[in-house]
Each structure stands twice: as structure tokens, then as C-alpha cells.
Write a structure and sequence with these properties.
Layout lengths: L7 H11 L6 E3 L2 H4 L8 E2 L9 E2 L3 E4 L10 E8 L13 E5 L11 E4 L3 E4 L2 E4 L9 E2 L10 E3 L10 H6 L6 E3 L4 E6 L3 E2 L10 E2 L2 H13 L5 E4 L3 H14 L2 E5 L10 H8 L1 E5 L3 E2 L5 E5 L2 E6 L3 H20 L9 E4 L10 E9 L2 E4 L9 H5 L2 E5 L10 E6 L2
Helix pairs in contact: 4-7, 5-6
Length: about 400
């Protein structure tokens, strides 16, 4: 295959053209649906508030004259939340009312209880009341038919009340894609094992599983595979049969013991291999049957950046989510950067409103992803200097 490198934007468009949102749905209990993507537009089944009601504990009055400072009124009724008064308020009278209670017929305004003195069955108003004071009008928040949530919106605690308002106790959500994570390398042992000699603990597998979990809400199983062609073939076959997405760490380059690309050519299809980025140049995107395969570099920082640049968006697209994975914003740069001939993605943190490099930027590092709050995109052919504006996206 050709080793001509694609630009980041070109590779992203290829991936977007290959991956389409799922149409598979399921219904979940509301308490289990948080974090999932709603699969239908949600329109209001009624007004909110449903009826005019009081925003305070106080007294409902019927006219401007009764709301004058010093007015003395006779108490005629009392109404609390969950009850209602059907008797129209008459001039010269007031109805005791509590927060959330429906306003009685003829309510002109409400005076707070703090602005009233009570004497037996009468009240005296100490501060003038204006028309509409402390009345929460029906439909003031939203009205019947309003679009409350668009299909593709992530359900989170802030919009759960919208579902509950509509009685959606089992909302329809898109089915989450199944993901497999494979760490390759003769030197890799489980993170639970004690390495010996040239061995190292697997850090990429747990990292990629955790990143996947940050999108989908659950960690996939991690499989370790040696640098053996047949083992790589078997692992990808098994994973592709059981999963919608296979994420491999290591073996994506072109060395003698890098088998992922040649295996994909043999049993599937490669959409692209090699992108003009740093870190992550060897990144691969392909397909085996209906399963999408990402071959990420074995170096941890490279693997992390490639997940954020490609895999996160792929998973979001497969869940039917509308949210973009990365939003690039202009921010102030706090260090110099020379053009690298590739889009350079630097892990950064914010310090006094300025972006600074976060930790070791070598592709082997694991401290920079841990310390990073932002990813800076440095263009292929442009030097940037401290104080310049750069493009950066928030991580996490």
C-alpha cells in the first residue's frame, strides 16, 4: 500500500464517511439511562408551570388598591401546594398562599409574608404590591410542544427533569457500540503482574479502556497479544466478531514485527494508514466485516492523542451523539513552537490564563496525558511564539 501520508483533516473525513450513527435503540429505566444518548426528539407534553402559581409564601390580592402600602385586608381563605382555592378573591380580602400553590381566581398580585403584619383575621401591607408580583405564569418556562431534547442529546442530570416532566421513565436510547481493546507486544505484561527483565506493565490497555469508558460509560475487556502474526490474526478475528470497534495498541507501524496493517490487508480493509501528525503518525483505521478497527501507536502519548483525535469521535458517532468530540478555540500561547512539517498536537495545561506545555512531550511519556487539560493544534508550516493565539481543545 502507498505510504503517502494524509493530512489530519483528510483522514478525519475518511473516518467520518465510513462511520455512521447507529439506528439500534433500546429503552432503559431512567436511572440507568444517564450518560446514554436519547434516540428520539422529546417535545413537551404540557406547559411548565402547568398553572399560574405562587413563587413565595405570602398573600394573594385582587386589585391595585388592595396592594397599596398600609392597606388592611380580611383573610378569606388559604391555599397550599397540592390544593387549590376555587373562590374568586374579592376586593378588600386576601388569600393566604404558599409557594407552588395555584393562584386563586382573580389574583392580581402576591405580597410576601415578610411585607405583611398579621392581626387576628386581618393583614396590613407594609410595602406596595405591583400587578403580577410573585406570580409564576403557566408556560413561563416552556409551553406545550416545545422541543426539550433533540435526538442525539446525551442524558445527564441536568436534563433528567425534562424526561421526568414528560413521564419518560423508560426513555429510548441508542444502543452502545461494543468495543474490544487489544494491547500488542512481546514486552507487555498485565498491569497486575510484576515485570522482569525487559518487560513492562501494560499502560495503554487500561488507558484506552478508561478513555472508552469516558465515552460509553463502561470499560471494555483488555486482551494482551504477543508480536506473533497468527496471534494478531486470531485476536482481531475474535474481537471483530464480538465487537463494533476494535482498538489495538502497538504493531501499527511498518517494522518487521508490526503485523496489524498486513493482517488488516489480509482479512479486512484499510481506510487509511499513516497521517501527517505528531505524535501518532502510524495511526491506522480499517475494517473487518462490520467492525471498525483502529491501530494506534504503541507509545502511550501517541496512543492517547490518536484516541482523542479519531477514536473518541468514532465512538460518539456510533452512539448517535450530536456532541462534537473536540472544539477548537483560540487561546493564548505561553511558549514558542517551531513548525514540524506535520500538525503537532501538544498536551498543555492552563496557567494564569495562558497555555503551557504539560510534562514530557515525548511520545513515550505518560505524565503529559495525566497533567494535560488541553490539546494544542500547531499547524504544519507555521511557527508560533509566546503570546500568539493558538487553537486548543479541552480534554476530558
Amino acid at each position: 500500500m502507498s505510504r503517502e501520508l494524509l493530512t489530519y483533516d483528510a483522514a478525519l473525513e475518511i473516518m467520518r464517511g465510513a462511520i455512521h450513527p447507529t439506528k439500534r435503540t433500546e429503552r432503559l429505566a431512567l436511572e440507568n439511562a444517564v450518560g446514554r444518548i436519547i434516540a428520539t426528539d422529546l417535545h413537551a407534553e404540557g406547559d411548565n408551570p402547568r398553572f399560574d402559581n405562587s413563587g413565595v409564601d405570602g398573600y394573594a390580592i385582587s386589585c391595585a388598591e388592595d396592594g397599596l402600602e398600609g392597606a388592611v385586608l380580611v383573610l378569606s381563605d388559604s391555599v397550599s401546594a397540592g390544593s387549590q382555592s376555587l373562590t374568586r378573591i374579592e376586593k378588600g380580602t386576601a388569600v393566604r398562599i404558599f409557594t407552588g400553590a395555584p393562584t386563586p381566581p382573580g389574583t392580581w398580585g402576591i405580597v410576601m409574608q415578610e411585607d405583611v403584619s398579621l392581626n387576628g383575621g386581618r393583614i396590613q401591607i407594609s410595602r406596595m404590591v405591583s400587578q403580577g408580583d410573585f406570580i409564576r405564569r403557566a408556560g413561563a418556562d416552556f409551553q406545550f410542544g416545545k422541543l426539550l431534547m433533540k435526538s442525539g442529546t446525551r442524558i445527564d442530570p441536568s436534563n433528567v427533569p425534562l424526561l421526568a416532566f414528560n413521564g419518560e421513565v423508560r426513555p429510548p436510547v441508542f444502543v452502545r457500540p461494543k468495543v474490544a481493546v487489544i494491547s500488542t507486544g512481546d514486552e507487555i505484561v498485565s498491569s497486575a503482574d510484576i515485570p522482569s527483565g525487559p518487560q513492562i506493565r501494560d499502560t495503554n490497555g487500561p488507558m484506552l479502556a478508561a478513555l472508552t469508558g469516558s465515552v460509553l460509560g463502561n470499560w471494555p475487556e483488555i486482551v494482551l497479544v504477543r508480536d506473533n502474526r497468527q496471534e494478531v490474526v486470531d485476536a482481531i478475528w475474535r474481537a471483530s466478531e464480538l465487537s463494533d470497534v476494535v482498538i489495538l495498541s502497538g504493531g501499527a507501524s511498518v517494522g518487521d514485527r508490526d503485523f496489524v496493517a498486513s493482517v488488516l490487508q489480509q482479512i479486512g480493509h484499510i481506510h487509511f494508514h499513516g497521517v501527517k501528525i505528531r505524535p501518532g503518525k502510524p495511526v491506522l483505521f480499517g475494517q473487518v466485516g462490520a467492525s471498525f478497527v483502529f491501530g494506534l501507536p504503541g507509545n502511550p502519548a501517541s496512543s492517547y492523542v490518536c484516541f482523542e483525535l479519531f477514536v473518541r469521535e468514532a465512538l460518539l458517532r456510533l452512539t448517535g451523539a450530536l456532541e462534537p468530540p473536540l472544539r477548537w478555540w483560540p487561546m493564548r500561547l505561553g511558549f514558542d513552537h517551531k513548525a514540524m512539517g506535520r500538525d503537532d498536537f501538544v498536551r498543555a495545561r492552563m496557567q494564569d490564563g495562558i497555555l503551557q506545555s504539560a510534562g514530557e512531550q515525548g511520545s513515550f511519556g505518560i505524565i503529559s496525558p495525566a497533567e494535560a487539560e488541553f490539546l494544542i493544534r500547531f499547524p504544519v508550516d507555521q511557527d508560533l511564539y509566546s503570546g500568539d493565539t493558538c487553537l486548543a481543545a479541552a480534554l476530558g
